Description:
14 helices, 73% helix
Amino acid sequence: KCSDVAALLFLMVYPLVYNFILSFRNMTVMNFKNNAAVFIGFDNYLNILRDKEFQQAFMQTLYFTLACIAVQFSIGFVLAVFFSGKFHLGKPVRGMMLVAWMMPISVTGLLFKYMFLTEGGVINELLKVFGLISGSPPGWLIDPSLTMWAVIITNCWIGIPFNMLLLTTGMSNIPADIYESAAIDGCNVLQKFFLITVPMLKASILSVLMLGFIYTFKVFDLIFMMTKGGPLNATEVVSTYSYRQSFTLFNFSVGSASAILLFICLMTVGVFYLRLIQKDEAM
């Protein structure tokens, strides 16, 4: 319908186009009301790329994304293999694990923020109970060397069930006849896993990795709820950098330019993923 197309254009296309145009101007809180912002070309992009804080935010975004993907995929794969077997209470337990993924991220971030408190937090209390720490407890949310790991752990708690679900679905689509034929040929468990399971999960693995990268690279609400990019910019990522420039420092054009750079990174990954899918389907 025409109304649906118009709503889509207004809600999705218009903000993106306006943000793109805004990134080429010098709009700040000083010239916002009188609309005196002028066209300055690529100056915002060049200044951002030279900005040490943006460089730090980009590298921390990349570190956060790769660390989360490595942990989420590894544990999710192990759980997928475990739950692919048929045993009592397997499906209910797997369903309960999905609650972590289904919860709103803002709620999860707030929950883990209190769990990682230095004094009285559940995490430090458990570490004390198991004798893993002695003396003063670690300041997960106030120590710049630990804060990033606090948000990585929280994000992995959300992402592991998602990885497990997609990989379990892929495993369920592998015909049982193939495993039976392999057993007749004398293949052991490891040979079945590396010669049958992994190759036939190629499409699912690729989807999990690419979707995980996109969802994690653009993370905002989780970090904003837990640390707001602190302390000392230790958890600043590109999305929080863009938010801070736009709504804290009121450098609207700089915030728009950094958001466009984030969009370009994600679009590049998306195009790369589509090319791999097309190449795999053509074979």
